[in-house]
């Protein structure tokens, strides 16, 4: 339980480092459970741009969190697409 809380705080801190253009689509996808079409509509962006920004956000998070083995395992779960 303590490890999960610690990991969550590390991930939240890493999310704060992302520019909004990457952070917002990622949060809408992974935390709000929206699909790409919904995110595209809400942000007034082409669907391809949404997919690209989410992929870039995940890559940046991996870079921010690399080196922490427990968190590395959790971040791999973000790569489900």
SSE blueprint and pairings:
Layout: H1 2-16, H2 20-30, H3 36-43, H4 47-65, H5 69-76
Helix pairs in contact: 2-4, 3-4, 4-5
Give a quick set of tags describing it:
5 helices; mainly alpha; single chain; 75% helix; 0% strand; Arc Repressor Mutant, subunit A; 81 residues
Q: What would you note in describing this structure?
A:
The mean pLDDT is 85. 16% of the residues are buried. The chain is an all-alpha fold and 81 residues long. It has helices at 2-16, 20-30, 36-43, 47-65, 69-76. It is built from five helices and no strands. Helix 3 (36-43) packs across helix 4 (47-65) and helix 4 packs antiparallel against helix 5. It has one domain: Arc Repressor Mutant, subunit A (Orthogonal Bundle), CATH 1.10.10.
Strand content: under 5%
CATH topology type: Arc Repressor Mutant, subunit A
Give the N-terminus to C-terminus distance in angstroms: 27 Å
Mean pLDDT: 85
CATH secondary-structure class? Mainly Alpha
Helix content: over 70%
Number of alpha- plus pi-helical segments = 5
Radius of gyration: 13 Å
Biggest beta sheet attributes = none
Classification by helices and strands: mainly alpha
| Beta strand count | 0
Summed up, what is this model?
This protein is mostly helical and 81 residues long. It has helices at residues 2-16, 20-30, 36-43, 47-65, 69-76. It is built from 5 helices and no strands.
């Amino acid at each position: 339980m303590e490890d999960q809380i610690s990991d969550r705080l590390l991930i939240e801190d890493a999310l704060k480092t992302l520019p909004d253009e990457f952070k917002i689509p990622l949060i809408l996808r992974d935390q709000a459970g929206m699909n790409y079409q919904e995110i595209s509509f809400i942000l007034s962006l082409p669907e391809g741009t949404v997919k690209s920004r989410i992929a870039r956000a995940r890559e940046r998070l991996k870079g921010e969190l690399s080196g922490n083995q427990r968190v590395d395992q959790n971040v791999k779960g973000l790569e489900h697409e």
